[in-house]
Amino acid sequence: MTVTHTQRAVAGALFLVFVPLLAEAQSLRGSNASVRRMYVQAKRERLYFYETPTGVRNAARKGRLVALPRNGDVTVGPVRYPYVQPQTRTFLLRLGAQYRAACGERLVVTSAARPATRQPANATRNSVHPTGMAVDLRKPKGRCLRWLRSTLLELEGAGLIEATEEYGPPHFHVAVFPTPYERYVERRRATQLVASKTYRVRRGDTLWDIASEHGMTVEQLTHANDLDDDAIMPGQKLVIPGGR
User: Fold this and answer.
1) pLDDT tier for residue 195 given thresholds of 50, 70 and 90
2) CA-to-CA distance for 22 and 217, rounded, in angstroms?
3) What one-character DSSP code corresponds to residue 243?
4) Domains of the chain (ranges, CATH numbers)
5) Coil, helix or strand for 191?
6) Which of 6, 132, 143, 146 is most buried as measured by Cβ atoms within 10 A of its Cβ?
7) What percent of the chain has pLDDT over 90?
8) What's CA 198's distance to the chain center, in Å?
């Protein structure tokens, strides 16, 4: 994530007025206050700022960071370090399914965990990319851009993420706040389960068969069960939203 000289000057003046971290109006414009919110949240969560590529890879090997999702909803560009915090991965799976349902195309991730020694020269000193909580998303066009802006603003307003629309190159920088987002997902799942039932996969079943039988799309089924791909196994239990 980068912050221009103009943004620093404007944000510095605003920060004197809006001292509380969440007091200012939500927007996708970068500012010192926005950078500070992300950094403070990373510290609150006691996330580690990985310094080197070896540190990032070791964290992934030990399960502290997880691989970016790659499925029919999310695709990954030429990302050198394709690892993130588990909650950020969940965010991408959920957002990707919603984005594809709304726009008919896959969400594109262009950056993820980035060690401190591999940050670009114009990166802010307090970037949270080294923690794995942040990702960059390719900026779409037209109605897809409007949908993504609106959705990111809604999640930011709920205190679940901090998002910035960047212009050089065009992308969205999104930092997912692990604990608030995890609690949000748990609440959504609990609400969903009240009006849902489970289905035990039978031999020969496909996701398309199960989705068709229950009057839903494959995307809705995979989203409800946080599936990375179409692979299912006999005996596996799937949540059927709506309890049909």
Assistant:
1) low
2) 38
3) G
4) 5-181 (3.30.1380), 195-243 (3.10.350.10)
5) helix
6) 132
7) 66
8) 27
